[in-house]
Amino acid sequence: MMTKPVPAGHPRQKVPGTPPPGGARPPTRRGPLARLFAKSPAKPGEAFGAPGQGQSLLISVITVAALLLIWIAITSSGMIKPLFLPGPRAIFEKFIQVSTDGFAGSTLWQHTLISLGRVFGAFALACVTAIPIGIMMGVSRIARGVFDPPIEFYRPLPPLAYLPLVIIWFGIGEFSKMFLIYLAIFAPLAIAARAGVRSVSMEQIHAAYSMGASPRQIVMHVIVKSALPEIFTGMRIGIGVGWTTLVAAEMVASSSGLGFMVLNAAEFLASDVVIMGIIVIGVFAFSFDLLMRYLEKVLVPWKGKV
Predict the structure, then answer these.
(1) Considering only CA atoms, which of 247, 281, 280, 279 is closest in space to residue 264?
(2) What are phi and psi of 106, to 5 degrees?
(3) Is 255:104 a contact under the CB 8 Å cutoff?
(4) What is the 3-state secondary structure (H, E, C) of 87-149?
(5) pLDDT tens, residue order, the chain (306 aa)
(6) What is the pTM of this model?
């Protein structure tokens, strides 16, 4: 059976160069920058992609490479004297020299281990004490009335403000340095734990009570688990404050540590040692932050989904 030919101009006839019905046009090829910064597709079950969804590792690598190239270009052109901003090669050579020969009586690794012990020792002590106190402040008005005034009073104070008092009370030994770092970490961690408890929805608590849960079970299995995202955020903020306070703590009668090394090098205008110490501190702080992000992803998989 033969079909009739479609006359010219008929809607069924496709004319070359004309867009398809409905005005839709074939997708155009995007450039590399457009593909790099394009939003990730929505996951199954989601109508729209969540804000900020997608991987940013490649963008971060490009950003670091661009900053490194700018650094090399500025130092190579002579715009800034090496006394004030040494080049990456000079920093690397100083890193090798201090790692082997040492600086101020200790090698770079000895300075690093001492500072790590001070920061993470104070951080561990703050986690053991600040998180339970923050949870108690969230669930008990008595605990909130007892701990809230002193925490909110000293929290805005810079560590250098009460450093002289810590020295008067505890001397210039190792305890005073760790205690100063501990105080700096304690306040943001306790406040984050309290905020996490206060953010728990009442529907979850009522549902647990309706199923026969006791007050202790409510706190352990509902409130604490719901507060974990805020607690992890407080831990990330607290360790950053701890590294900041490390330099202030090692200013007083210290003969080792990364903060001491940076301050001692600054007195002799050794900019390469100062920048090297800053980079080492930043690398360890950023590595710990990445570890905390990974632990949060593993231990709190429900974050952002409830």
Answers:
(1) 247
(2) -140, 150
(3) yes
(4) CHHHHHHHHHHHHHCCECCECHHHHHHHHHHHHHHHHHHHHHHHHHHHHHHHHCHHHHHHHHH
(5) 455 555 555 555 555 555 555 555 555 666 665 665 566 555 555 555 566 666 778 888 899 899 999 988 988 888 888 888 898 898 999 999 998 888 888 888 999 999 999 999 999 999 999 999 999 998 889 999 999 999 999 888 888 888 888 888 888 888 888 999 999 999 999 999 999 888 887 787 878 878 888 878 888 878 888 888 899 999 999 998 998 888 888 877 678 888 889 888 888 888 889 999 999 999 998 999 899 888 888 888 777 665
(6) 0.75
DSSP state of 2: P
Tokens of 216: 């202790």
Q: How far apart are the first and last CA of the chain?
A: 63
Per residue, the 3-state secondary structure of 251-264, as one string, reads CCCCCCCHHHHHHH
For residue 8, give the DSSP letter. T
- 167 vs 175: CA distance, rounded Å: 10
